[in-house]
Design a protein that fits this description.
Elements (H helix, E strand, L loop, with lengths): L27 H14 L10 H14 L2 H10 L7 E5 L9 H8 L2 H10 L4 H7 L9 H15 L4 E6 L7 E5 L2 E5 L12 E12 L2 E6 L5 E6 L2 E13 L6 E11 L1 H9 L3 H13 L15 H24 L7 H4 E6 L6 H12 L4 H11 E4 L10 E3 H7 L1 H21 L4 H7 L2 E2 L5 E3 H7 L3 E4 L2 H9 L3 H6 L4 E3 L6 H7 L2 H11 L20 H26 L8 E6 L8 H17 L8 E6 L7 H19 L7 E6 L4 H7 L5 E4 L11 H7 L3 E4 L5 H8 L5 E2 L4 H9 L4 H6 L2 H12 L11 H9 L5 H20 L1 H13 L6 H13 L6
Parallel strand pairs: 1-2, 1-10, 2-9, 10-11, 11-15, 15-16, 17-18, 17-20, 18-19, 20-21, 21-22
Antiparallel strand pairs: 3-4, 5-8, 6-7, 8-9, 12-14, 13-14
Helix pairs in contact: 1-2, 1-5, 2-6, 4-20, 7-34, 8-9, 10-12, 12-13, 12-15, 14-15, 22-33, 23-24, 23-30, 23-32
Bound molecules: ligand 26Q.
Length: about 850
Amino acid sequence: MAEKGKTRKTEVPDIVEKGSGVRRGMSATDLRQAILDHLHFNQARLPDMATRNDWYMAVAHAVRDRMMDDLINSLHYLERKEIKIVSYLSAEFLMGPHLGNNLVNLGIMEPVRKAVAELGQDLDDLFGQEEEPGLGNGGLGRLAACYMDSLATLRVPAIGYGIRYEFGIFDQELRDGWQVEVTDKWLRLGNPWELCRPDITFQVGFGGRTESWQDEQGRYRVRWIPSRVVKGVAYDTPVAGYRSGLTDVLRLWKSEAVESFDFQAFNVGDYYLAVDAKVISETISKVLYPNDEPAIGKKLRLAQQYFFVSCSLQDMIRTHVWRGGSFEDFAGGFAVQLNDTHPAIAVAELMRLLVDEHALGWDTAWGITRETLAYTNHTLLPEALEKWPLPLFAEMLPRHLEIIYEINGRFLDKVRRRFTGDEGRVARLSIIDENGDKYVRMANLACVGSHAVNGVAALHSELLKQTVLRDFFDLSPEKFHNVTNGVTPRRWMLLSNPGLARLITDRIGDGWVKNPKELRKLESFARDVAFQDAWRQVKEGNKENLAKVIEERTGISVDPCSLFDVQVKRIHEYKRQHLNALHIITLYNRIKRDPQGDFTPRTFLFGGKAAPGYFMAKLIIKLINSVGEVVNADPDVAGRLKVVYFPDFNVTNGQLIYPAADLSEQISTAGKEASGTGNMKFSLNGALTIGTLDGANVEIREEVGEDNFFLFGLNTEEVHDLKAGGYNPRSWYEGNPQMRETIDQIASGVFSGGDTGLFRPLVDHLLHSDDYLVLADFQSYLDCQDRVSAAWRDTQRWTEMSILNTARMGKFSSDRSIREYCERIWKAKPAQ
Ligand code: 26Q
């Protein structure tokens, strides 16, 4: 329930006046004055005394001011009941730094740069001051951020709902080659982009018990009496579209203690109990969970999920009622997308709000719920499907469990009517897992409670239907969709690769930014030698920039003329960073055998965080660093091979790395990577891909053409057959001398100062189970890498392929993805 004090709207002009002056003006002169004013009135600093952070804050506030007209106008749209609002529910939003992106989207990069320079500051320095909000683990959170950019750019009224974690994903440091996690205190110096809305708060209950009662009309009703209540407070961050005049909002919830709660305790004299309650309440939004292995949950994580989902749904209902909508038409007012199962509790919560709080009948509420919700799946790994131990669930959300039982009972009745006698199917479809310890299966809940279910790449969506969601597909095939992921060309090209963006725009105009299919026009210049030279120059400049940063951060000097071979992404066995490492060792051995030989110089760049509890992933990081230490220091190598682990891979670092890559490593075991989005960022920036037929690689290859993509490895069918026939990694090892050599070297301590124990677990794993078929794909990978090395030597051909990659990546704009969601799933339209 919203707190009191909300005033009814008063007459406001439809379009707030745009203009000039210190709050709105877009000229360098106006901006300069605006920055000085903010320095004075917000930071309370004279220019002489201002720190770099003061300047950054002043600039950020000046920019934020210029987003307010569009934000206020957009909030007015939300009041119109004929407009359908898209609600993107996500436990993660990996937004990356705001300042640069907002300057690009508002179209004021140059005047701000000038204004800042006139004040004796350097805009790039100020960019460096921003702590990026790392409120996500990786792909899924970053996808949500790209989608917010596209929603605003396409003028779709939308709210991104999530959690305002006080600590985002940990910062990664490397000590002695091991990952060390450091708390991410991103709010330490304040966050100029968010607006706290102390008046937009909702209460969320936990625990306790339920009671039934009869209302005046004699209806059976249930009341939930929670044992604990916390308050969610809204924090809004405006998300400007790219020159679209529409600004959407990211609304993140912070948990706080309910005032009445501590007063109660205070009155009975237990001050410390009151303070305890406050601390516990505030814990909910304290920290982002790293995606750990396996997905079986922690209590606090479930509390987080329920907390943000409940606040968000209450907020939607409040808005809907406020704009005069009827409950029956809730689905006409909101399309709610569940970003994976993390917000899947929305199914039960929306039912609870409609049935218990607003007295709708079950069937009506169920119709509304299913029509409103849609679910995106992001994984094919069965062990990554979320499930909650039943006792934990029952204790924290007793009413929701009752509702889930009711949903499940009705659902399974229907299943039994259709598939009479097929109790195996019933057990698989059930929302409750009853094989041994009982669990609530969140993917099942999401499928049952949604009108649409989608995967994130064509292959992934097909495999979903055949594997993890097969029974649901059999039941309701019409629900299943594919929406291939995309990335925003604003952040991932315009902002991060301004040199390339300029070169492209000079040739084909700037229409590609909103309509990236226009990049195809570059095809006709792919063999143009002058254009190729200019193209290469941009890439070399980007590589030089990166080389400088690598040297600063790691002390390793790399040759910008070498082939930059890059694998940046979360560390996971299925992504096979260790396959990449085996290749490096093979190259090293070749050089050692023939030190005078003619080898293609390569710089291997790795980046990515491992989940803190994922031992094998951390050992892979150590292995890469250990191989690097040996290779980088060996005089025989003479700089022809360098191995770099770039610490703390995040959005900011990604913006530096993707534009500087020549080769993009997308080498997951076929059938394991749902989509990948880094693969798109690389290719868009002119890197060639070495990859398997996995996730969106399949579609990338289709688009760029098979001649412009380095394919290797088993496909999903072959992976399946190999495993079905009893895969024995040891025989692959024994049959391949090169592989044997590299693995033996790891085992015998060549990269661990003679320590034969250090990498033993990894070696054992490869030899005895090798779940991700590293050994089976090894030779194919090696051969393919040899083709890469040969291709690199034909500079013109390589450049042509690079240009063709960029030219043909239009499909992978997140604008295309969002259009598909709007048309096929949300039935939402751009605002006029
Ligand atoms: C689950 C339970 C408890 C704690 C954490 C989690 C958790 C958190 C984050 C589980 C998974 C994630 C993130 C998953 C993810 O990023 N998946 C990626 O999504 C991308 C966008 O669709 C795809 O491109 C990638 O292929 C997929 O791996």
